[in-house]
Amino acid sequence: MQSRCQLSGSRRAAGLMGAVFGAVLVALCVAGCAAPGGTSATPPAAVSPAAALPSWRDGPAKQTIEKFVADVTREGSPDFVPPAERIAVFDNDGTLWSEQPLYFQFVFMLDQVKAAAPKHPEWKTNPAFKALAAKNYGVLASQQKQLLQLVAVANSGMTVDDYDKTIRDWLATARHPKFNRPYTELVYQPQLELLAYLRANGFKTFIVSGGTIEFMRPWVEKAYGIPPEQVIGSSQLVQYQLRDGQAALVRQPKIDFVDDGPGKPVGIYRNIGRKPILAFGNSDGDLQMLQYTVSGSGPHLALLVHHDDAVREFAYDRTSKIGKLDRAWDEAITDGWTVISMKDDWQTIYPAPKQ
Predict the structure, then answer these.
(1) pLDDT tops 80 at residue 232
(2) 44, 129, 212, 245: most buried, per Cβ within 10 A?
């Protein structure tokens, strides 16, 4: 299932292990989750190359990642990329944390819409609200824009600080229906290691997600080590107001930008100003981001994670209403992108539960 990425110019294997070992010596301790504030535990005195990605099984996928990182970071390599241009972008839902049986932000939004429904009888004819009332999550997944509009109305008038607190409070108590763990513990251990490995090698890591920036920014730095200013996502219109003489940013009942599908390259251009050299996704919603990353000259790496582990996580792809992987999978096979099998390439899925 896996295939090698296409690198421009020659690809040299000589000196690979030495380059990786040198980079790993300065790596953060990547065996566990990123610590609060985006930093990790004290690095060990010496780390073997295999320890950089301990939750990744040795095979073509892991070897492709290590070779790519070595090639773009080794001075004198024909594929060397200066640190300022080492941009790596990651989708969030289904790429950095789980997304079944429903996008986690959708679960949060459903609670918000339900609470506001008595004040909005006009919603009874809204297709997204009908799907919500019937708990038809398959239909609801295809009504993402309509649901976002409902949420925009439900939470309009709140300051961004109040909304931030609402999200934090929900995440502190909500539990996943299958795993009975906080949603923020259902991040992927191999991806935590990869993010730290890339940063240790001079990459700047960004989230580029269809989820909203408001929902992600309160927790992603602690979970992934990615600061809020490196989160690109959908957004609700916000306006500046004076409330009781105090400056406030207030949410308006309108979606400002949808960062999904073709919106992802636009979001990257607007917020980063550089084309990524590495992009990681899991669904057709990431297709255009991956196409954008591999377009043009220069080294690049496009990766997709395939959810094929029904025992440890979930198994879904071409026919799923959530995280559908169909067109992007076909293009990965045709163009030689790297497809990661969750079942075969990841030894561990989630970090150990917190005590």
Answers:
(1) yes
(2) 212
